[in-house]
Amino acid sequence: MAVQISPSILSADFARLADEVAAVPNADWLHVDVMDNHFVPNLTLGLPVVEALIKAATLPIDCHLMITDPDRWAPAYAEAGAGSVTIHAEASSAPVRTLREIRSLGSRAGLALNPATAVEPYDDLIGEIDMLLLMTVEPGFGGQKFLDMVLPKIRRARGLIERHGGEVWLQVDGGVSADTIERCAEAGADVFVAGSAVYGADDREAAVASLRSLAEGAV
Ligand code: DX5
Ligand code: ZN
């Protein structure tokens, strides 16, 4: 289980995106939050900006789709060249088909669960995914407080993944910071999204390095 850090550009300066991307050369991924103002009460960016980021970034793009009807829209993000495309279980009516399509287009396939969504009903989907994303805040906004109530689910999810052979990455997203990342790592997460903890820091590169060392020290 290798620790990976995926800074979320949601908290970056959108007028200077290319510079903000270049500010985290020591990260593993660049987390891009696509919100449609339907699945979540916020609107961010869509495919044209993701395509531009794929061209501008040296890091692979970790696309988190907080949109209704991901079955219709997700494949285009894979086709555009996102390294990873994550859909929400709550929004998908044909997750097996969509996850397989994402994979067949060459991206890693991710499945996201909101804080109140139990992981157990998705046990049978673990063979269909490369990453499980557990939201540790209600999706929609950066800078929210980490929800401790998700920690037992992170542990249970890690158990399910191990029973399937341990290949699937376990990502946490929301309120991940120097104060909370160790708890997440201890519970079994290995991919850490951090928005305000990275882009709210003066030195983004140092913030990534310190989150990584805290997570590595906890496991
Ligand atoms: C929230 C997004 C997150 C967000 C996290 O719905 O999915 O990726 O950027 O921001 P922080 O790390 O500030 O909670
Ligand atoms: Zn996200």
Helix proportion of residues, in percent? 25-40%
Q: Identify the strand order in the major beta sheet.
A: 1-8-7-6-5-4-3-2
Q: What is the beta-strand fraction?
A: 15-25%
- What's the mean pLDDT score? 98
Shape by Cα distribution: globular
Bound molecules: D-xylitol-5-phosphate, zinc ion
Total strands: the figure is 8
Q: What structural class do you assign from the helix and strand content?
A: alpha/beta
Give the oligomeric state of the chains in this entry, treating copies of one chain as homo and distinct chains as hetero.
single chain
Secondary-structure element series: EHEHEHEHEEHEHEHH
How many helices? The count is 8
Computed CA radius of gyration, to the nearest angstrom: 16 Å
What can be said about the biggest beta sheet?
8 strands, parallel
- In whole angstroms, the N-to-C terminal distance is 9 Å
Low-confidence stretches: none
Q: What do you see in this structure?
A:
This protein has helices spanning 17-22, 47-56, 70-80, 95-104, 151-163, 181-187, 196-199, 204-218, and strands spanning 4-7, 30-35, 61-66, 84-88, 108-113, 131-135, 169-173, 191-194. The chain is α/β, with parallel strands linked by helices and 219 residues long. It has an 8-stranded parallel sheet with strand order 1-8-7-6-5-4-3-2. The longest helix is centred in the C-terminal third of the chain and has 15 residues, at 204-218. The structure holds D-xylitol-5-phosphate and zinc ion. Residues 8, 10-11, 31, 33, 64, 137, 139-144, 173-176, 193-197 line the site of D-xylitol-5-phosphate (DX5).
